[in-house]
Amino acid sequence: MQRIGIGYDIHKLIQGRDLIIGGVKITHEKGLLGHSDADVLIHAIIDAMLGALALDDIGTLFPDTDASYKDADSTILLKKVFKIIKDKGFSIVNIDSNIIAQEPKMMPYIPKMKSALAQILGIKPNDISIKAKTKENLDAVGQKLAIEANAVVLLENKG
Ligand SMILES: [Zn+2]
Predict the structure, then answer these.
(1) How far apart are the CA of 127 and the centre of ligand 1, in A?
(2) Separation CA 127–CA 121 (nearest Å)
(3) Which end of the chain is less congested by CB atoms within 10 angstroms, N or C?
(4) How remote is the CA of residue 156 from the centroid of ligand 1, in Å?
(5) Would you say 157 and 118 are in contact if contact means Cβ atoms under 8 Å apart?
(6) What pLDDT is stored for residue 67 in this prediction?
(7) What burial class does residue 46 get, using C-beta atoms within 10 Å of its C-beta: 0-12 exposed, 13-18 middle, 19+ buried?
(8) Which residue has the higher pLDDT, 109 or 62?
(9) What is the DSSP annotation of 80-145?
């Protein structure tokens, strides 16, 4: 049986935070604001994985009222959600995603993101697509106030 899920996330860009996307630290004068490390791509992928199985979303699973998730490393949240998927007999077939940011350039970091995510999720870097887009200077993302991500994940249960 195969199940598909979609995920979306957005975080505000502010001074004084590290910029971490796809589990990779990106050199930039601003970072994303959030209760955890605000890894917008991992959050979108987590929601797509949970959505594929019609489970509670990331905000319900890891509430921002829970102090233990303050500045949490999102790769740890991803590992927890992957375990939920695996315990239900599912593995990941492939992931397609977009990072939408006016700046900085994501391209140089994408190979690193793919290998970081592939290692956690038990798939090959070639099973993960990460596309870098801008917002053509339009809206909050285009005005460099925020970064967005979308993800689609296909899960398979061979049982
Ligand atoms: Zn988020």
Answers:
(1) 23
(2) 10
(3) C
(4) 25
(5) no
(6) 87
(7) buried
(8) 109
(9) HHHHHHHHTT-EEEEEEEEEE-SSS--GGGHHHHHHHHHHHHTS-GGGEEEEEE--TT-HHHHTTS
Element housing 22 (H / E): none
Residue whose token pair is 């005005």: 143
* CA of residue 134 to ligand 1 center, whole Å: 19
Provide the total of helices (H) and of strands (E) in the chain, helices listed first.
Answer: 5, 7
Report the separation in Å between the CA atom of 91 and the middle of ligand 1, taken as the mean of its atom positions.
Answer: 23
pTM for the whole structure: 0.97
User: Does residue 68 surpass a pLDDT of 90?
Assistant: no
Q: Are 24 and 109 in contact (CB under 8 A)?
A: yes
